[in-house]
Amino acid sequence: MSGCLFCRIINGEIASRSVFSDDNIVAFKDLNPQAPTHILIVPRKHISSLSEAGDGDAQVLGELQLAGRTIAADLKLEGFRLVLNNGKIAGQTVDHIHYHLLAGRRLMWPPG
Ligand code: 5GP
Ligand code: ZN
User: Fold this and answer.
1) pLDDT per residue over 82-91, tens digit each?
2) Which residues are near ligand 1 (CB < 6 Å)?
3) Residue 84 CB neighbour total at 10 angstroms
């Protein structure tokens, strides 16, 4: 997906501050952090949203969550939140599936 922002970050066309990378997943700091720790966890495969994910994406979807676990452990986060915005009305602005990993302050519930 040549026009996709996260595909361009993944292939190095656009710089980012990487915190994790393996064969299927990359994670980097959010440009506009909403918490002291705000990391985006993204599959290398372009999947536009959870609604567009197929049954064949189960492995990589699990790997996204486990990358969140690994990053949280590496950063010794006491608690954290993984958020996936699906669709414009839910706040999705980049159409390449991703989790937000948020930590470092008390997180309110319900979210806005
Ligand atoms: P969404 O709103 O789709 O759930 O999340 C997209 C996130 O991408 C936002 O939190 C936004 O701050 C972040 N973002 C947008 N453009 C860039 C960029 O060029 N680099 C990085 N690192 N994050 C970005
Ligand atoms: Zn993409």
Assistant:
1) 999 999 999 9
2) 5, 14, 16, 28-32, 40, 85, 91-94
3) 16
